[in-house]
Amino acid sequence: MKNREDTMHIRLINPNTTASMTAKIGVAGARVAAAGTQVSATNPDAGPVSIESHFDEAVSALGVLDEIRRGEREGADGGERVDAYVIACFGDPGLLAARELTTAPVIGIAEAAFHLATLISTRFSVVTTLGRTCIIAEHLLQNYGFAHHCRKVRAAEIPVLDLEDDGACALGRIIDECRRAKTEDGIGAIVLGCGGMADLTDEIREAVGLPIVEGVTAAVKLAESLVSLRLGTSKHGDLAFPRAKTFTGRFDYLGS
Amino acid sequence: MKNREDTMHIRLINPNTTASMTAKIGVAGARVAAAGTQVSATNPDAGPVSIESHFDEAVSALGVLDEIRRGEREGADGGERVDAYVIACFGDPGLLAARELTTAPVIGIAEAAFHLATLISTRFSVVTTLGRTCIIAEHLLQNYGFAHHCRKVRAAEIPVLDLEDDGACALGRIIDECRRAKTEDGIGAIVLGCGGMADLTDEIREAVGLPIVEGVTAAVKLAESLVSLRLGTSKHGDLAFPRAKTFTGRFDYLGS
Amino acid sequence: MKNREDTMHIRLINPNTTASMTAKIGVAGARVAAAGTQVSATNPDAGPVSIESHFDEAVSALGVLDEIRRGEREGADGGERVDAYVIACFGDPGLLAARELTTAPVIGIAEAAFHLATLISTRFSVVTTLGRTCIIAEHLLQNYGFAHHCRKVRAAEIPVLDLEDDGACALGRIIDECRRAKTEDGIGAIVLGCGGMADLTDEIREAVGLPIVEGVTAAVKLAESLVSLRLGTSKHGDLAFPRAKTFTGRFDYLGS
Amino acid sequence: MKNREDTMHIRLINPNTTASMTAKIGVAGARVAAAGTQVSATNPDAGPVSIESHFDEAVSALGVLDEIRRGEREGADGGERVDAYVIACFGDPGLLAARELTTAPVIGIAEAAFHLATLISTRFSVVTTLGRTCIIAEHLLQNYGFAHHCRKVRAAEIPVLDLEDDGACALGRIIDECRRAKTEDGIGAIVLGCGGMADLTDEIREAVGLPIVEGVTAAVKLAESLVSLRLGTSKHGDLAFPRAKTFTGRFDYLGS
Amino acid sequence: MKNREDTMHIRLINPNTTASMTAKIGVAGARVAAAGTQVSATNPDAGPVSIESHFDEAVSALGVLDEIRRGEREGADGGERVDAYVIACFGDPGLLAARELTTAPVIGIAEAAFHLATLISTRFSVVTTLGRTCIIAEHLLQNYGFAHHCRKVRAAEIPVLDLEDDGACALGRIIDECRRAKTEDGIGAIVLGCGGMADLTDEIREAVGLPIVEGVTAAVKLAESLVSLRLGTSKHGDLAFPRAKTFTGRFDYLGS
Amino acid sequence: MKNREDTMHIRLINPNTTASMTAKIGVAGARVAAAGTQVSATNPDAGPVSIESHFDEAVSALGVLDEIRRGEREGADGGERVDAYVIACFGDPGLLAARELTTAPVIGIAEAAFHLATLISTRFSVVTTLGRTCIIAEHLLQNYGFAHHCRKVRAAEIPVLDLEDDGACALGRIIDECRRAKTEDGIGAIVLGCGGMADLTDEIREAVGLPIVEGVTAAVKLAESLVSLRLGTSKHGDLAFPRAKTFTGRFDYLGS
């Protein structure tokens, strides 16, 4: 069993390439981390600056996998071993693939938020950015088994990068949508549907008056939980390391 | 946001009245708790010495609720406030009722184990004590949304209190059943289906060679997670404090 | 096969301790009972005066179990054997535990109403008392398998004990909510979501113009049905009598 | 509310045209009927002599509808009014269509057996005739909402009309299959999957040692229940009488 | 593998007996058929002139089965073999029974439309004729597995035969309902819920500005697909030819 | 409506980079294509040589998207327009993302096979390559809505590239597993779970004696169907073209 004095290292991977969002996510994660937990935040060099579609998500998954591989290499090369990874985009891009690449736990922020929301309420709603991404949350809810715990997936109709602007406009729209959820949905909690909202949680909670579950912070705590329990991704069965094989072309670096 | 130096206090409630099991659960919980977390373990004065049926469970729920009320009173009376509660019986007896009584998080060990198991494997099986209690796990899996993540609920056919005996017989049967699950079920992890197995996790893991998710330890970490995130049981909606009312007879102490 | 001349005895257990409601339930049950059926109505000495939360429900389950045990004892002691039990609270508190205690059938009024509603309509809605109890009905619908037969669980926002007042206010609000259900939900029937509405069925039906399925009366007929068919609670498998064991403290009377 | 002295009349419709089976069904129904209940059993003039396929079922539905219409006419013509109908084939052929034709309740024997089985056990299995009809039971279980209550649909591989033969061969095979279900399925009750087994219930129960739920008898009691409660098929919404229209050709008698 | 030069023959069966609708369906089917596909459209001699209830549907199933048998006979008698059948009523009446009668594929227009709609959108709504038939579509969606792909089943409240009138009134109401679906339902496509709308698809699509999936045309293409792939109805298991048996009375022609 | 003389062009995208498999897939697709359909088969330059894990799948999705973009560009540049795309790997990698990039239909071979299998049987099983990929099929079955139509996902435990070897060993193992499915699963059809089996369909069908549904061929026909019906991917709602944005690093070519 892990010694309490041990430190652990959680790597937050922002799947998009907007450094300001990465920094924000890192700050949010670090704020809730335990004393012995080191939080580092990275993003891929290559990929979309925001993730607002299945397409953006599919491309960002590559970046996530590259970052997992980089994290694993760092540990293997005598650097700071990564004890757990967080995929900090609400679509959990590349989650199962990432799990195959490591014995460490890998947590998506959508799943993290859903899990914790069910522990403090019987029903919740999700408030996300653009309407077109609601389907992503709906699919995840169904895959993970939480569909009947969620009353409604709502969109504030804010492009993700508007969350990087200083103007309070995005915040206001999110609060408005959360209030509608509170009034209309018969819920006990709200899940914020974008990693870029990680710094807004407190303001939203105070304005709305409901527990607000935010995924980055939720995932950091779940990652810490698993590491403390020495529970890593199972290498028995379908999350085992991928079979060694050739990759061609620009992806040849992924092969063996 | 919670200051990292803050301590927190997690109360483990063993719903049965077997003190040796309470002690064992307390030790298991304390072993995995963070440095700043105080773990206390209690059990009700009154109730079944083990929980192996719906009937045992229904009676034990009263004990759980009494213990929650006691925990709340201690805090109110200037004692050590309880920051989170764990219900340490795999049927999660009284879970939703307990949540109504407090703003603190309340976590059941079955739900805790199910949640964490889905984070490290795509499919798991449950190994519990007596065959007659399998239905309890099946109902919980369905209610929580994890039915399709679980391949099979298996019983080692051990009465709960046999887990308190020193003879390794119970352990052997659990390991045998876990190995069958590993071989036959197409799974990546096993969930132990009884709080009384909390001290056996390491031995089982080594003997079986699969990640073993144990509920008491899982629940402690989830409780810590929620407290760190300042996420308590929602008091908006259906988990609000019960309406004040009269209780009659021996339950009059519950009334207002 | 049961001789038609035989009489049978159905015990209605009102899980709350409000005698006027018990009486009302007894009258409602007796009105629909067959000629040879004796209906007796009881309530526990101890427990909540009304059931409007998970907490109230958990406590009331103890009372239900005590009443089942009393019923069984009466028969064993040469008194009038109870042939079937009805749990007359819409949350069906203690249902599975109660079934473990007897070979007689035990029927909850929520399940009874749901079953019969599906036999006369393709879709129904539930109209219950307080909004906070809707979740209880939703959980039951899912557990029993009726979730997709029910369009909506609605609350008239009436505290249960208001149903004991003479003022027609409660009745009016229930009728209003039923009418909204009829207009908006695309349903063929309404299930009344509280045992305390058992005496209002006729008035509601006439005011609303839809079949109204009420649980107490439904459960009496299902109980008669099972007794006539000599179908009792299965003692093979997970509803067998609980294993004999010690109960401690004030619950020691439950032990063996 | 129905006066207890009132009699009621339940019409059992055997959807196949084998008179011996109709008689057997009538006897089984009459044995369990209440003192005031008159049971009549009929079968269509035209249709399959047994129902062992979707095709047989579709044709038999016409016969069922003709019998419902005949029942309604008899009442309208001053004959004995039919208070409830039972469709006595385990596929519940024509059930929703039949409900449209009458304000009386219409009960299928498969649904009846499923409903009652869930009241006395947490899990049951079905033992039916031919393997090819298992899919019919599986579809019904899913439509009615009972899929997760049923462990397995099993076939004894007996053609339906073998149940009309005196040789005990069919009975033996059914008992064998029921015993396998008892041993292997983790169940508390068995549902017999054919109206032609209505006379075998007692023998099977004694041989197998489990509660055996038989649909004809179950449906009679549910029909009595609904009539006593004055709950008829809802005429509000999608089970209202069909719109008047022309039928052509040999079906012109169905038109208006 | 089928030679491309081969022709194939698809028989569209309009389950109602309105010849003008049969003709319309035949035209719609022929318009989308491949060059080598011969489309013939028939309707039974006997049955309802429109299908707007479970009752109409049950009767029409007989006509469907007669038409399948006629189609099979024509091929056997040296006439033009039918390579695939389409059941051109949105309730897919008699579908599984029809499949038992032939090795050719049999496609219902509701299932066909649902299948194709899921290939071009993540969520769709259905717009059908009368509100009372919505339940038929809901049941099919659930049976086929598409319930969570469909946001809403809507009715334009048009009797089926109004679709045969020249007045544009029906079209206007359908377009209005489709526009409401587009605005309110969060969908990517609309499924038209009646074979009688087959000639309106283009107009509706242009007016609404969404992909409109129509069942007759969808089914013709799926039928062609299966024939090209030499995939016929499986005769292994529960869709095998019905067992030979006697049918009595006016249905004796169905027996062997 | 599409003129029958029109030709159409279907692009088969093999998501792995093994040219021999691409060729095989192209041949299989062309064999079943209609006379007017041109089939071209491509694979990405870069990516895994076979797809046997979530990781392989995530990487291959990029190749799929590149190929979709290339197909779109070819049409825009005056080359042969692509009328529909098929993603020829049984995990349907990148399916929803691909749909966002085009108005043409995009069909995955897993979904195609599932859809057609439900049209010719009530229950099917899947036989795929490696056990570790079974979970991929299970997830797709659930997402698409076909989970309850599939009895079992089975693996022949053959690495994908063994399908490229001449030795009949792979074929033998597949046939063995299919025969086990036929004997044990209660099914009417088998779905082949790998694009690399496209050339084995006839041999398997003859050896097994069941309808064998193969995805590449199924997808070609569904693609033809949608093109003939002028049904393209909906651009209303969540499959609309992705919002224009910057992509960084090696993915900058994807940005606007």
From TrEMBL, chains A, B, C, D, E, F:
Which superkingdom, per the lineage? Bacteria
Task: Name the Pfam families for this protein.
Answer: Asp_Glu_race (PF01177)
Q: Which family does it belong to?
A: Belongs to the HyuE racemase family.
Quote the protein name from its UniProt record: Aspartate/glutamate racemase family protein
This protein's species is Thauera mechernichensis
Biological classification of the source: Bacteria, Pseudomonadati, Pseudomonadota, Betaproteobacteria, Rhodocyclales
